[in-house]
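Entry 14. Ran structure prediction on the chain below.
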Amino acid sequence: MVAVIRKWSGAFVLVLCGLVFCTMGVGHLIGGDVDQDGLDDAWELAQGYNPAWPTRIIYVDGAAGDDVNSGLTALLAKQTIGGAIAACQTVSVENVILVAAGTYGGAGNRDLDFNGFDIKLRSISGAANTIIDLEGAGRFLSLSNAETLASWLDGFTVRNGYMASCGTAVHLDGASLDIRDCVFENNNSGRQVTYEYGTYWTDASSTAAYSGPQKLDKAISVKNIILSPTLGGPPDEQEEASFHARVQSQSSHGRAQRGEDPG
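Output, structure tokens:
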């Protein structure tokens, strides 16, 4: 048995019997690599990625990142999710965004659109540690350009969204999205007004945290979702969304892991 330590583009690797163990974050095994993206095929399958399609990962770190960075490594992370989405407008690759733990607010983290590209938007540390705070100023995602279920929203708490209707946190129109392991809380439509004869809600068409699609060729896949009560408007869509969240199966892939390209 031969064991050799080598330094490969800044990462130390252990070469053992022809297989490479990478030490640059996840320590995944570099064995078969059909798409030549530097990521092990078995690791990609475990993450839910297609090993026959090159995976391109863009990193986001709200505390240490900067949107002028490339985002191609954790050390060169983008600061906002919007900045990462802009860097994922790429064909012929599987676009993945990995978001570090933290609370993300402000204009660069709300009213976002994948612009027709299938993007896997995932947190690294799960919904309990990765918060999207919409600050009552809009929704998180609005997809309307034929995105498919190859687009994911995975592992976030999305809170404090506000829209008059059509999904207070996520809205789909002619697009699909795989939503899993997320928490939606305090996402409201409408506004409360008080008159001398009582208190009422206005501009409240729906309280559903996410809405759409209506066409049979589009779909929302919902898995392991927690929906907290929201305020305003008729509850029908919210109740339907909660029902679908309960009956769907659990996530079929593990928590997102860093997979920096050693090449």
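Confidence is low (pLDDT under 50) at residues 1-28, 213-219, 229-254. Will compare against last week's run tomorrow.
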